[in-house]
Amino acid sequence: MSLPRPWAHARVLAIAGSPSQRSRSSVLLRHAAGILRPRGLNVGDLGLRDIPAEDLIEGNYAGAAANALRARVAAADAVLISSPVYQASFSGGLKAVLDLLDPKALAGKVVLPIATGGSPAHLLALEYGLKPVLSALGARHILAGVYATDAQVRVDEFGVGEIDPEVRQRLEDSVERLSEQVLPRGAVLNESYDLGRLALAGGFSV
């Protein structure tokens, strides 16, 4: 029996900066979200395809899609942001999405940036490209970013990825730190313990 945990109100928004579900950065983003969901966090997804291309190109700040984007970001306690690196910079599509946010949209939120690129040198795009933009949007609690090279994330024709063990561990460590920030102190994630605690509290009868 699955019961809502008392801390399940905590919300995380996962923003994909690639239009492809088969991109390596999307694989890492899905893996991170998959770790958080069993912990009782409400994880939502948002990608470039959720916003009309015309709105992104024209920067339609007043459009319905932009309003919905800002509302979802405002409701989140934490934000995961992933992007492929092209020409030593994070994706233009992601920049177009971030340009639709309010100046302090990320204030008070925990942010985990994730990126993939062709070589280790492109790590600088995460540190000196994406993170300053996140800071400009008010983010003050930016976790250490997770960067992987293309060789460290392999994707099959169905979009199922195989992640290098070292990258997987770094990603899981970062997700652990994120969950510690948004879950109430002392929250226990053991299902049998949760059920017993709710029973004692009169939440249900056994």
Roughly what is the average pLDDT, rounded to an integer?
85
First-residue to last-residue Cα separation: 12 Å
CATH architecture: 3-Layer(aba) Sandwich
Radius of gyration, in Å, reads 18 Å
Count of helical stretches: 7
* Helix/sheet category: alpha/beta
As for the number of domains, it is: 1
Helix content: 25-40%
Tell me the name of the CATH homologous superfamily.
Answer: Flavodoxin domain
Morphology call = globular
CATH topology: Rossmann fold
State the name of the first-level CATH class: Alpha Beta
The largest pleated sheet is described as: 7 strands, mixed
Number of strands: 9
Strand content: 15-25%
Low-confidence stretches: 1-8, 188-206
Instruction: Output the helix-strand order.
Output: EHEHHEEHEHEEEEHH
What layout of secondary structure does this protein have?
Blueprint: E1 11-16, H1 24-36, E2 42-46, H2 53-58, H3 64-75, E3 78-86, E4 89-90, H4 92-98, E5 110-117, H5 123-136, E6 141-142, E7 146-149, E8 153-155, E9 161-163, H6 165-182, H7 191-200
Protein name: NADPH-dependent FMN reductase
Domain NADPH-dependent FMN reductase-like: 11-150
GO biological process, one term: alkanesulfonate catabolic process
Walk me through this protein's architecture:
The strands form 2 sheets. Strands 1, 2, 3, 4, 5, 6 and 7 form a 7-stranded mixed sheet that branches. Helix 1 (24-36) packs across helix 6. The protein has one domain: Flavodoxin domain (Rossmann fold, 3-Layer(aba) Sandwich). The N and C termini lie close together (12 Å). It is globular and about 40 Å long. The chain has 7 helices and 9 strands. The model is unreliable at 1-8 and 188-206 (pLDDT under 50). It has helices spanning 24-36, 53-58, 64-75, 92-98, 123-136, 165-182, 191-200, and strands at 11-16, 42-46, 78-86, 89-90, 110-117, 141-142, 146-149, 153-155, 161-163. The protein has 206 residues and is an alpha/beta fold. A hairpin with a 2-residue loop joins strand 3 and strand 4 (89-90). InterPro entries: Flavoprotein-like_sf, FMN_Rdtase-like_dom, NAD(P)H-dep_FMN_reductase, NADPH-dep_FMN_reduc_SsuE. It holds the Pfam family FMN_red. One of its GO terms (molecular function) is FMN reductase (NADPH) activity. This is NADPH-dependent FMN reductase. Keywords: Flavoprotein, FMN, Oxidoreductase.
